[in-house]
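Notes taken during the Thursday session

The instructor put the following on the board and asked us to keep it in front of us for the whole hour. The protein is Protein FAM92A1. We were told not to look anything up and to reason only from what is written here. First, the residues (144 in total):
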Amino acid sequence: MFLQARDNQTRQIQETVSNVEKHFGELCQIYAGYVRKTARLRDKADLLVREVNAYADTETPNLKHGLKAFADELAKLQDYRHAEVERLEAKVVEPLKSYGAIVKVKREDLKVTLNARNRESKQMTQLEKTRQRNPSDRQIISQV
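Then, after some discussion, the predicted structure tokens were revealed:
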């Protein structure tokens, strides 16, 4: 009964570690891709702002004023996009990345625990066999 409960608990821990490893890895990749695409969009918009400003310099004063105002507003939007990229990197992507190392450590801990449990199980089996063969020989039983 005790061994079955322990096996169920071990299996559940293994499934949890595997589940976290799979899904957090996917989440990290998707968020990192999202951040990269958002950063590329920000960079393209910065190029657009420069080009609008360059075009405004060649136009009449009224059109120049309107284009410069448009370029300034677009630049402000890109400042917000830049802040979004930095926030996503710091608050989402980096913590998700750290789970890779945590999962690796937990998997190693689980492996060590399973090895110890298997050794203990083998010793218990050997002890039971020895008891069945020599039930009255306490010296051999204590050595095992």
